[in-house]
Specification:
5-stranded mixed sheet, single chain, alpha+beta, 6-stranded mixed sheet, L-amino peptidase D-ALA esterase/amidase, 386 residues
């Protein structure tokens, strides 16, 4: 079994690929070292006009960290867990403003009701596979209760979300446990975030191709001050794939994985910002993430669990970004640029999850092929988008 905590550095990916190549056998596609695939922006696909942050990732929001643990075992375990930490301290002691928006509720998002009732998030946010939510939440509870300062805590609201990776993974085996959860949290770092077939995205499918983890960010100005809006997605959904406004249905028909559905199953979206947004405003912002989802060609199917978890890292002082607070209090229309930023960042994060993912062979010999980039780029060139 491979248990690999992915600190979010691109250099670490090369080392992990080498470990996988040495440790796996049987001709699995995941056992072979592969050249890096570009992110959407690296391939020339620029979504919107707002500038991206330095890493074009959710970690561009100061203090935010991401960690992955990828589980690959034998022929039928292709799963994992991804942890998003709003800050590096004790989240129960220093809660952050938060909100959860339900686009389509066919899913198992544990902890959502308390977040919306109280407007706060008090644990790391974990993404995993559908049937692993209770085990992951239990491990997260153990982690939180053991933190210094929490010795007398009698109630914790673990926030755990999922998509179903059963095409490639033995989802009934519920393979993510306490060791994996702790490793993902402990390995969470800032900086560049590994994307594609890693962590909670190891076994996912999107638009009939290999999906996974993707992230993106935008820098905005509100009230004369700069802030960051960023998203991270676990893509496991589908529809009529559209890239930068150009239909990719011909690519889907010609290249999607045999036996796969283009409908998909679910999309988890996490939105982070350092702007001082309340629970009410975060709820308004989170709704716009689904517009980025729609731009990629999805209408949110019947069985698609489409959720947005949003938080602000402005948690230590009410005096943070006072001009932003005044602007939003006097003229809430100032938030329009934030709406634009979250839609753009979500669209690009989804594209990154597809562009960065590699072909994976999993349970029952099922194969999910990576999105073929050259046909996609050729259609974009023909449409004058590159």
């Amino acid at each position: 079994m491979i248990l690999s905590p992915f600190p979010c550095r691109r250099a670490s990916w090369l080392a992990v690929v080498a470990v996988l190549a040495l440790s796996l056998s049987g001709g699995s596609a995941m056992a072979q070292e592969k050249p890096a695939r570009p992110r959407a922006r690296e391939a020339g696909v620029i979504v919107g006009v707002l500038p991206a942050g330095p890493n074009n990732a959710i970690t561009d929001v100061p203090g935010v960290r991401v960690g992955h643990v990828t589980l690959v075992k034998g022929d039928n375990v292709r799963t994992g867990v991804t942890a998003v930490l709003p800050h590096g301290g004790n989240l129960f002691a220093e809660k952050v403003p938060g909100a959860v928006y339900v686009g389509n509720g066919f899913g198992k998002l544990m902890g959502a009701t308390q977040v919306n009732e109280l407007g706060e998030i008090e644990t790391p946010i974990l993404l995993t596979a559908t049937l692993n939510v209770p085990r992951t939440a239990d491990a997260l509870l153990d982690y939180m209760l053991a933190l210094p300062g929490n010795e007398e805590v009698g109630s914790v609201n673990p926030l755990v979300a999922e998509t179903n990776d059963g095409v490639l993974n033995d989802v009934r085996g519920r393979h993510v446990g306490a060791a994996e959860v702790r490793a993902a949290i402990a390995g969470a770092l800032g900086g560049a975030v590994e994307e594609g077939s890693v962590g909670a995205g190891t076994g996912t499918i999107a638009f009939g191709f290999k999906g996974g983890i993707g992230t993106s960010s935008r820098v905005v100005e509100v009230g004369g001050e700069q802030g960051v809006i960023a998203t991270l997605v676990q893509s496991n959904f589908g529809g009529r794939l559209t890239v930068d406004g150009v239909s990719m249905q011909e690519v889907q028909r010609a290249h999607r994985s045999a036996g796969s559905s283009t409908a998909g199953a679910s999309l988890m979206m996490i939105v982070a910002t350092d702007l001082p947004l309340s629970n009410r405003l975060l709820n308004r912002v989170s709704k716009r993430a689904t517009l980025g989802m729609a731009r990629t060609g999805s209408s949110g199917g019947h069985s698609s669990g489409d959720y947005v978890i949003a938080f602000s890292t402005t948690y230590r002082t009410e005096q943070a970004m006072p001009r932003v607070r005044r602007e939003l209090a006097d003229n809430e229309r100032a938030i329009d640029v934030v709406f634009q930023a979250v839609a753009d960042a979500t669209e690009e994060a989804i594209l990154n999850s597809l562009f960065r993912a590699h072909t994976v062979v999993g349970a029952s010999g099922n194969t999910l092929h990576a999105l073929p980039l050259e046909p996609v780029l050729e259609r974009l060139r023909a449409a004058g988008r590159l």
